[in-house]
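Reading a protein record of the kind used here takes only a little practice. Think of the row as the fold of the chain written in a discrete alphabet. A record is reproduced here so that you can trace the correspondence yourselves:
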Amino acid sequence: MHSIVIFASGKGSNANAIIQYFKRSGQAKVALIVSNKADAAVLDIARNEHIPFLIVDKQSIKETLLIDQLTECKPSLIVLAGFLWKIPDSLLHTFPGKIINIHPALLPLHGGKGMYGHHVHNAVLTGKEKESGITVHYVNEKYDDGNIILQARCTVQPNDTSDTLAGRIHALEHYYYPRTIEFLLTQ
């Protein structure tokens, strides 16, 4: 069975979608959740699902102890699901081609540092984009710059707000992210 490690900073809706998907399919299990926030709701999901978790700070995410703990999980993939920090080079070099991210827009548009959640949706609306969507991509040394694995699109409606657009984006994320992970695990 494949092992997945999830990095998340917030509510954990994508993490939960991934956990539930693989509980049903049985092809993988989430072995660990890593968060940079001790009060992140994703940790409640980890507790409820009996999944071990780690809380990291700016120093510990760069340390070999974290790399050792991740290596112990033997992850087939490390999945960023709303993790707001840049991944340090030490992790990228230890797990080459095994770290993926989901971004709530069609990259290369509206990516980069500080572009997450409603910041992205507001930029899409301000830019008068006709469509938005999600991008699943490999993680490299730059924010939102790695090779694209999958993009899924939705129409931006004339009366959209950041919240209504976010709702459609979340639906795309929850559907496509687990399936993209499953596809990558079977390659």
Remarks:
- The chain has a mean pLDDT of 96.
- Residues 162-185 form the longest helix (24 residues).
- Strands lie at 2-7, 28-35, 53-55, 77-80, 99-103, 131-138, 148-155.
